[in-house]
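Onboarding guide, step 5: your first structure request.
Type a short instruction followed by the sequence, for example:

Predict the 3D structure of this protein.
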Amino acid sequence: MDLTETEIPEAPASTGHPKQLYMLFFAEMWERFSFYGMKALLLAYMVTQLKFDEPKGYAILGSYAALVYTMPLFGGVMADRFLGYRKAVMFGGILMSIGHLVLAVPADWSFFFGMAFIICGNGFFKPNISSLVGTLYADNDPRKDSGFSIFYMGINIGAALGGLLCGYVGQQINWHYGFGLAGIFMILGLVVFAIGKSSLKAGLPPNPAILKKPFFAGIPTEIFIYGATLLVIPAIVALFHRYEVMDYIMFGLGAISLGYILYIAFQLDAEPRNKLFAALIMIIFSTLFWAFYEQNAGSLNLFAMRNVDMHVGGIELPALSVNNFLPPAWVIALSFPFAWLWPALNRKGLEPSTPLKFGLSFVLLGIGFSVFYGACLLGADTGLISLPAFILGYFFIISGELCISPIGLSMVTKLSPAKIVAMMMGIWFFASAIGEFLAGKIGSLMSVPREVVDNPVLSLPYYADIISKIGIYSIGIGILLVVLVPLIRRLMGNVR
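The system replies with structure tokens like these:
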């Protein structure tokens, strides 16, 4: 019996949320503290400490981020077919804890190995804890988008604290202490989930007997999955040393994934097939959103260090902490208004459809980058933009994020056939992977030559030109999506 299909609660919608949502909220919050706290340090660490050229740093960051969001595709499939959500989350959390602690070791080998453990762990943890949130609600429960928005706020509380504290400890005290701090909170998140997982009604293995059945050389299937995952780690380390081949890997996997989903779609009846097509269209567009948005973890980190005036009342704020605190801090500030907004508009029959929310996300993102560009024009003489303009730009960018990221998680659980929800969640994160990979390529266009990195007047134009283009293209894509809304709505059928 597949518990992920049969034990979804069918209680009538109410204004409250299942208590399990808050357990998952806290588990994900501490896991995201560790993940984003570590990510805040990566590019700056490579450029300033490992002395990588900026294009190489962007390429490795893009490869890392792409692999982080590619592995959920495989972790989702393993959960759907064998492990169930709970076992997958526990295994992934253990691997991520090991990875963060390895990064804290001040040795040449630890950097790539630590990232490889985190990549594999995230593949099992990330899609399946999100899928567990989906199991708390019936398919057409109007609380679902609101519940994902609350869950998404938990992600960003962790990200805000992680970016602030790990960014400060890493930049101001010791880079490896910053990585180690991330590891401590990863373990805390894992403990929260281990204590609370028994309260969940779903997420058990679809067929426990298969896990015990020998798969190869007498090794039980469950143990084989864990062992095979560990064997992937040295392969990922080797890939970091040959990051040029990532072009073939990412776009090849993209083509294979698209082909496989289309193959599945054509095995379905017309209604679920059309819903899957609608999900696929929105997932493809999300790739471009993340390619623009994820400049935050790359080019905007260095932009903040070099070209944002961080002085407030005679005190210079640490740029890495500020840049990595602002996005999740805005999410925290805006999550409750957005979580209230959608149900309130729904009651009045005015809630935007899911594809319209996607279109709005691009428009708002484009406005945010346009604010950055306007500040660059105003600060051309000094090479510095004001901190208030930097904060305002992020307000619009994060408003755009809240129209796509939690809504996208909810969309996947609503439009996907029940038996492939976790796999489709993996596809959703794989779209983010391609976006992250493209973000590295866009960021490399903003690489600043070493001879001018300390001169803000000369470094500013390298950022301003690409920032302006991101703003223009993002608004254009948003308008295109709005035009396509009627088509996508027809494919979605009775799902909003």
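Each response can be followed by summary notes, for example: The first strand starts at residue 214 and ends at 216.
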